[in-house]
Design a protein that fits this description.
single chain, mainly alpha, five-stranded mixed beta sheet, 15 helices, 5 strands, about 65% helix, about 5% strand
């Protein structure tokens, strides 16, 4: 399972590494130290991603605690207490860091705006303009500004915090009122192990769960059964929550599958190497290992092909983006806006730094558009679009295949409304990715 290298997946892998250490190095101070450091790093990288791994890890620790009669043995109480306190301290330190770094009114407003936006961008979608026109008119938001916001175009703070919060409340009230069929939800959560996906990596986890079930049946010992049982409860709860909310992007599901696989492997190895070794467990270990390796080879080949393709594409996109950066820097007198939807795939290599640093452009929008730092930079770079007399240039992909500025989407319509000017094609760029990009002057 090759997770995409993103903040979400990387933070999840760090959290899994922490639990793997404390479980495999049972009772070791080294394992506890590694656990604490990994959880802190995961939380600093992405809090929500670190938190979504906690039910998995804590379930295994709780199962081990109960299996070893932790309520009677002081050593087990101490071990469990250290793990719980370490996770709690890591979360507390992260919260303190957020409170110190983002305590200003501007950052609080941004967080409120962002939290409300998540409701629509990640969960329920955007209602039609006519459906929420009364709310938008109340805050002086035009149809174009609303459409631009729904497409991540946020060059200026057109929608206030209050407006976005009211939209989110409306969407939740009208979209989230359906009853939940618990049986269907649990069935889908279990089916997530064996339903086909793009790379079929979930089937690897399914094989491990089959091995875990057989291991519990053969050994019938609480030291083996309890950790598996509580992990099964935790994974069912987490997957049910994600399925209910429709929150199943690959950057979330892939790390969760990796967390399950890592913890299951550790528990299976622990059952195999411990005092519970029997002929049956050796046969089981061999059978599960053969199935796991065979399927890993099959899905591994698919994943390898997929990753090679993605990496080659990213290399070309990175080269294309460098060409855009060079073009903008070569014209320092002009002010450029890069259409966020045209360059969403230009994320660059994980360890690359060539495109970092000051550049002669800004993006038309994104998750950080209304952050205090970005608002300050936009104000210094662009000023007020409605009052500025100087020209601004938009670089956008030619989606229509026709060199027609009017057919280039909501970003063009938004800038036309803001600047009260018709766009003019001043340049046509063909980049390394083979795409044609228009340079429009407003």
């Amino acid at each position: 399972m090759l997770p995409q290298i993103q903040f979400t997946s990387t933070a999840a892998l760090l959290a899994v590494a922490g639990y793997s250490s404390v479980i495999s190095l049972r009772g070791s101070k080294k394992g506890q130290i590694i656990f604490f450091l990994m959880e802190v790093l995961a939380l600093l990288l992405r809090r929500d991603s670190m938190l979504m791994i906690q039910p998995f890890g804590m379930a295994v620790l709780a199962g081990s605690f109960l299996a070893h009669c932790g309520y009677k043995e002081k050593s087990e109480w101490k071990r469990m207490g250290i793990c719980v306190c370490s996770a709690a301290v890591a979360i507390f330190l992260g919260q303190i860091g957020n409170a110190v770094g983002y305590s200003s009114e501007e950052w609080k407003a941004y967080n409120q705006f962002n939290d409300a936006s998540v409701v629509m961008f990640d969960y329920y979608g955007f209602p039609d303009y006519e459906e929420v026109q009364d709310i938008l008119d109340k805050y002086g938001v035009t149809e174009t500004e609303y459409a631009a916001y729904a497409n991540y175009v946020m060059i200026e703070w057109d929608l206030s915090v209050e407006c976005v919060q009211e939209l989110a409340e409306y969407v939740q009230a009208t979209r989230a009122g359906t009853m939940v069929n618990l049986g269907v939800l649990l069935k889908e959560a279990c089916a997530s192990l064996f339903s086909l996906n793009r790379l079929e990596s979930n089937n690897l986890v399914g094989i491990l769960w089959i091995g875990a079930a057989l291991c519990c049946v053969l050994l019938r010992k609480k030291e083996v059964i309890f950790p598996f049982l509580l992990l099964a409860v935790a994974r069912t709860a987490v997957w049910s929550y994600l399925i209910y909310h429709g929150r199943l992007p690959y950057r979330v599901t892939r790390p969760l599958l990796f967390a399950e696989a890592a913890l299951l492997l550790i528990l299976l190895l622990d059952a195999w190497k411990g005092k519970t070794q029997t002929k049956g467990i050796h046969i089981l270990a061999g059978g599960v290992s053969i199935c796991f390796v065979l399927w890993a080879c099959i899905t591994g080949q698919r994943q390898f092909t997929y990753v090679v393709k993605v990496n080659s594409t990213q290399e070309i996109m990175s080269q294309s983006f460098q060409e855009i950066k060079d073009y903008c820097d070569a014209n320092p007198a002009n002010q450029y806006i890069l259409d966020c939807n045209s360059f969403s795939d230009c994320i660059g290599p994980a360890l690359g730094t060539a495109v970092n640093g000051t550049a002669n452009y800004v993006y038309s929008g994104g998750w950080y558009s209304n952050s205090p730092n970005m608002l300050q930079w936009l104000d210094e770079y662009l000023g007020d679009l409605e009052c500025s007399s100087s020209s601004v240039y938009l670089i956008i992909y030619d989606w229509s295949g026709e060199l027609n500025a009017q057919n280039c989407g909501i970003t063009v319509q938004y800038l036309m409304e803001k600047t009260l000017r018709e766009p003019e094609v001043t340049d046509i760029l063909t980049l390394a990715n083979g795409g044609t990009y228009l340079v429009l002057q407003f």
